[in-house]
Predict the 3D structure of the following.
Amino acid sequence: MSGTSTLVMGVVNVTPDSFSDGGRHLDPEAALAHARRLIAEGADWLDIGGESTRPGAAPVAEAEEMARVLPLIAALRAETAVPISIDTMKPEVAHAAVVAGATLWNDVSALRFSPDSPAMAAELGCEVVLMHMLGEPGTMQDDPRYDDVVAEVEAFLLARAEVALTAGVAREKIWLDPGVGFGKTLAHNLALIRALPRFVALGFPILLGASRKRFIAAIDPLATDAGDRLGGSLAVALEGARAGVAAVRVHDVRETVQALAVQRAIDG
Ligand code: HH2
């Protein structure tokens, strides 16, 4: 399959410490301006987050997280029809975000952060992304190990989908994400990217988030700054599109839209 229908999800981090753009959009006006720019660049979705999940990131209190994201979601909802997802592990933040206008809960904990999460996902009735993470953001990159990373991530995602279904989430609302960079070495990340067709074959829409991630610097030593990882980010987005993922989560929307359009044109 080609990139014909690969959606581009633009990242808006309203955080002081995100690994790739931390601090840049903490001011509400700056965050809104950034979101508008991503829409103008062709984003199909906006993923708004108020808590960094980068390796070693500090947790954020619920009230603080809400104060960061809710005004932005409400402001965007008032001026655009572009769908908004909320990147949070906290069910109460997801709830408030959906009330404010978000239609997808992007949960990197795959509804494990709180015992209330599965029921909340069902109650909200929104779409939900279940992502694989080994361990927790604070320690997940401390020597992650798997016997068979692809089989284990696949089994985890299917088990979490089952939990969501049992709680009452409709099957067609569930997305899966192998969680590139979340408790994975370079070899693990590459194995998961190679296995994308297998994840797509599970029958759920797949979200792929590799944009500006650290594994790119493990391949290209000149890419120590997250902002210098565009080439690697595009390479993975194209690979994902080729494998048939439903959406790619990216910081560089303009360049990704262009790369996917060229791939599509080549495919004819
Ligand atoms: N990656 C990040 C955050 N959220 N959500 C999904 N579903 N998949 C991902 O791969 C993913 C995600 C990390 O990237 P970023 O938002 O740029 O950094 P931070 O977590 O430091 O804000």
